[in-house]
Each structure stands twice: as structure tokens, then as C-alpha cells.
């Protein structure tokens, strides 16, 4: 007999026997009352941590108790394909080992590389679950991108679109210039800066300045002088389309409806009144408006029917809308160049330290850029109401009860969910675009009413023909 207990030896042999004996399998033909838990699928990218262990221990206790209490208990195992996280890992591996980007090898070969990586490293988590003794029904093991799950995702997307709950629209999204994709709010980390701070940003050799407020002037038409505004993102002034003041601010009443002139492109910027946005006691009381690159300005742009001018390429460079002087510059290189150009014209005023919250991507550490992009969204209002009603009626009980307030606060302030990503690894949106003979290449995909959502290309063709369009 061994002098001491060896968990690694004992537990491994016991678990193998449990699994081979089928003790954790659920019987679909059983007349016992069912009890089902779907294991929240951990990301295929890594290994389990203590949080996973806690969840597994709690769920295992629940499923074993139900099984011993006479229920047909099913605990479904699986792993998540983890779109962004997995793509980032494989892209880094490609660059490290072969000095290649995903664009160098193309979509098909890149997806093949990801699948190889998944087959090689994805088993780590499944083995760890077994080591934890989790009584999972391994005959039902799932992967969120296997054939069955992929078919279910497509079906759900098509049904929700037909019900009007999924739609395509141009909205301001969190854009990662390294990944070249929209990311969710939960993938944005916020860094609180108390003063001027130099931060390392991916793709830049030198640290970039944040935590400052830069003031500069716009010249006014008709020789009326100038109007001073301030911003923490001076490069976005290249996309300004208006200047807002408070309607009751006496300093600017003579400028209502008049225009300033953009110093680099000659664009006329209307002086608009907006009591909702402008605080006349803050700064100069005049606010530059960049509808395409700021959440508050986006709403102002909609209220006042302003022009939305995107000045960035997908990888974070200034595009042709930013003017020939800055076209092609990385955005934070342009930040410095714009200040120098303003100084040359005598329009730069000063730079002061400024407390701010900076959004960065949790995956890449790149600074998140608010950008207007055509994306697919889920209308969350109906689901939020159902969730609120279920807790208020006690159909769902939240324990501890104090967390009910978090539930209410979250769902009462819900926003529509952006579900599309510009990734190569993940489920593809089941949508096809109808092209017509006189379409210009630069406009392809821009008309929201020409997107057809369908289960496959054949169904999309049939649907397009019903709408009297040409076949895809």
C-alpha cells in the first residue's frame, strides 16, 4: 500500500473508468425528468484558470446531485472558437515563425492555419476538464464552429432577420485598427489618465501623447475674427463639419447660423446651437463637431443633419478626406503634423493637461477609434423587456437579491448589439449583396436594401429575383 495519497495517479484511472463505463451519458429515450446544463464553453486559445475551476466545481455538484436524485441529467461539454482571441494568437505565430501576415497568405490558407493550431492546442482544455473530474457527457462534445453549431447560427440569423430583430445599418462602432474589425464594448478596456501621459501604441516606434487638451482657432467668414475650440484628439479636426455653441451663450449669439472655414480644406463649418451637448461654462463654450468619429458628435450630427466624413482607413491612416497634406499618414503621426500645420497658420493656441478615459482593445492594446461602419445589429429592446419582466415577476430569481439592481440598470439601458466582425476566423454572416450592371466598385455593399439574408446562395438568388433584381 502506498504511504501517501497520489491524486494524479488515483484520479486519472478512476476518471477513465467512469468515462468508459458511460456513467455521465444522458439517455434521450429516458422517461425521467430532464435536467440540462450547457458548460459555458471556454476559449480554445488557452488553458483553464481558477475561475473555470470554480464554475466547473459548482456545475458538477449540481449535475451529480440531480443525477442521483433520479433526473436524466445532461451536462454538455465543448469549447468556443474565440474569434478575435484565436485569430490574434495565430497571426502572432505566423509573424514570429514565418514573418507573414494573414493578408500575405490569404483567407483560405489562414483559416487552414487556425484549424491546425486548434487541433494541436485545443485539446488542452478538454484534458483539464477531465482532470477536474467533471461529469460531462463526452459523447455530445461540441465546438462552436462545428457543422451542427454553424448550421444553427445561420438558421438563427435568418430567422431573427425575418422577424426584424437583426438589421444592417451605418453606426458608430469601436474600431480596432490593428485587427481591422469592429469590437464589442466588453472588449474595450478603459485607462484613466490624470495628466499628460506618453503611451506605447502598436505600430508606432515612439510613445504617443495622451491626457492633454489642445486648443486652436477656426477663422470665421466675413472677417468676423475666429472661434476657439479644444479637443483631446486634434487629428479628428480633419473631419469636422460644424461648431456647436449653447443657444443662450451671449458670447456667440451674433454667430448663430454663420460659418467658420476649415484651414486645410476650405470646408464651411456651420455654427449650430445645441443645448444638449454644449456646456457654456466649460472651456471656451464652443465645441468642434466630428460626427463620424465621436459618439456625442454622432448624435449631434443626426440632430442637425450634418455631413458625416470618415477620415480614417481601416488600418488607422488618414484617407483622402483628410486632405492631401495628411493623406496616408498614420493617425498619431498626423496628430503631430496637424499641430505643426496649425502653428504655421497662427491658429494653434495651447496644450493643457486633461483628465480623460482612453479606450484600448483588450486583445491588441491598440487605441480604439470610434468609426462609422456598416454593420449588422440585433435589436435588444424586446429581449431586454422579457428579461426585466421575468425578474420582476419572480419567474427568474437572482441570488443574492442585491444584484437585481445591476440587472435592471443593465437591461434598462441596453443598446442594440453589433454582431458583425471583420475577421477571417469565425461564423460568416449569411448575407449576399445584389449587384447591378451600372454599380461602381467603390459603392459595392453600400446599399443596405440590396443585402439578401438567406441560408445559402441558392436561396439568396431566389429571393433576389423576387425583388426584380438581377441574379447574384
What fold name stands as the CATH topology of one domain?
Isoleucyl-tRNA Synthetase, domain 2
Q: How much helicity do the residues have?
A: 25-40%
Mean pLDDT: 93
Q: What's the helix count?
A: 12
**Got a strand count?**
21
Shape: elongated
Task: Identify the quaternary structure here.
Answer: single chain
Strand content: 15-25%
The largest sheet is: 4 strands, antiparallel
Question: What is the strand arrangement across the widest sheet?
Answer: 6-5-18-19
- In the predicted model, the low-confidence regions spanning at least 5 consecutive residues are none
CATH class of one domain: Alpha Beta
Looking at CATH, the homologous superfamily of one domain is Valyl/Leucyl/Isoleucyl-tRNA synthetase, editing domain
- The N- and C-terminal alpha carbons lie at a distance of 74 Å
Architecture of one domain in CATH?
Answer: Alpha-Beta Complex
Structural class comes to: alpha+beta
Summarize the structure.
The chain has 472 residues and is an alpha+beta fold. It has helices spanning 7-20, 50-68, 83-98, 102-105, 107-121, 123-131, 147-162, 295-304, 331-344, 381-392, 404-412, 457-466, and strands at 34-38, 72-76, 78-79, 142-143, 166-176, 181-183, 188-193, 197-199, 208-210, 212-219, 226-231, 242-245, 259-261, 268-273, 286-289, 348-353, 356-361, 369-378, 417-418, 431-433, 451-453. Helix 10 (381-392) runs antiparallel to helix 11.
Amino acid at each position: 500500500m502506498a504511504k501517501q495519497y497520489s491524486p494524479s495517479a488515483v484520479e486519472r484511472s478512476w476518471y477513465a473508468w467512469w468515462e468508459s463505463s458511460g456513467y455521465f451519458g444522458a439517455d434521450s429515450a429516458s422517461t425521467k425528468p430532464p435536467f440540462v446544463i450547457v458548460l459555458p464553453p471556454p476559449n480554445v486559445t488557452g488553458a483553464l484558470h481558477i475561475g473555470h475551476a470554480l464554475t466547473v466545481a459548482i456545475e458538477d455538484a449540481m449535475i451529480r446531485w440531480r443525477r442521483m436524485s433520479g433526473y436524466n441529467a445532461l451536462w454538455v461539454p465543448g469549447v468556443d472558437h474565440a474569434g478575435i482571441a484565436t485569430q490574434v494568437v495565430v497571426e502572432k505565430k505566423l509573424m514570429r515563425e514565418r514573418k507573414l501576415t494573414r493578408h500575405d497568405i490569404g483567407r483560405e490558407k489562414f483559416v487552414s492555419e487556425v484549424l491546425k493550431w486548434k487541433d494541436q492546442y485545443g485539446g488542452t482544455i478538454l484534458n483539464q476538464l477531465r482532470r477536474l473530474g467533471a461529469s460531462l457527457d463526452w459523447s455530445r462534445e461540441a465546438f462552436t464552429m462545428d457543422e451542427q453549431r454553424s448550421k444553427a447560427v445561420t438558421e438563427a440569423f435568418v430567422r431573427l432577420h425575418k422577424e426584424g430583430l437583426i438589421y444592417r445599418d451605418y453606426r458608430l462602432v469601436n474600431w480596432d485598427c490593428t485587427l481591422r474589425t469592429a469590437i464589442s464594448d466588453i472588449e474595450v478596456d478603459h485607462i484613466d489618465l490624470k495628466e499628460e501621459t506618453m503611451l506605447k501604441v502598436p505600430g508606432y516606434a515612439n510613445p504617443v501623447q495622451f491626457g492633454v487638451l489642445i486648443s486652436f482657432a477656426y477663422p470665421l467668414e466675413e472677417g468676423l475674427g475666429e472661434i476657439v475650440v479644444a479637443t483631446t484628439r486634434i487629428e479628428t479636426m480633419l473631419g469636422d463639419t460644424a461648431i456647436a455653441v449653447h443657444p443662450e451663450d451671449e458670447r456667440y449669439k451674433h454667430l448663430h447660423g454663420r460659418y467658420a472655414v476649415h484651414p486645410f480644406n476650405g470646408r464651411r463649418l456651420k455654427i449650430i446651437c445645441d443645448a444638449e451637448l454644449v456646456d457654456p461654462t466649460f472651456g471656451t463654450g464652443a465645441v468642434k463637431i466630428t460626427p463620424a468619429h465621436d459618439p456625442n458628435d454622432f448624435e449631434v450630427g443626426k440632430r442637425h443633419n450634418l455631413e458625416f466624413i470618415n477620415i480614417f482607413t481601416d488600418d488607422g491612416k488618414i484617407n483622402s478626406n483628410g486632405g492631401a497634406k495628411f493623406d496616408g499618414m498614420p493617425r498619431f503621426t498626423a496628430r503631430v503634423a496637424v499641430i505643426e500645420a496649425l502653428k504655421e497658420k497662427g491658429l494653434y493656441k495651447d496644450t493643457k493637461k486633461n483628465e480623460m478615459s482612453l479606450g484600448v482593445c483588450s486583445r491588441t492594446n491598440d487605441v480604439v477609434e470610434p468609426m462609422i461602419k456598416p454593420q449588422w445589429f440585433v435589436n435588444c429592446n424586446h429581449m431586454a423587456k422579457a428579461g426585466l419582466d421575468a425578474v420582476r415577476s419572480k419567474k427568474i430569481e437572482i441570488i443574492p437579491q442585491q444584484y437585481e439592481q445591476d440587472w435592471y440598470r443593465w437591461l434598462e439601458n441596453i443598446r442594440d448589439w453589433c454582431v458583425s466582425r471583420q475577421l477571417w476566423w469565425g461564423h460568416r454572416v449569411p448575407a449576399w449583396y445584389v449587384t447591378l450592371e451600372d454599380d461602381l466598385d467603390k459603392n459595392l455593399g453600400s446599399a443596405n436594401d440590396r443585402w439578401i439574408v438567406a441560408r445559402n446562395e441558392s436561396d439568396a438568388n431566389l429571393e433576389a429575383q423576387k425583388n426584380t433584381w438581377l441574379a447574384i
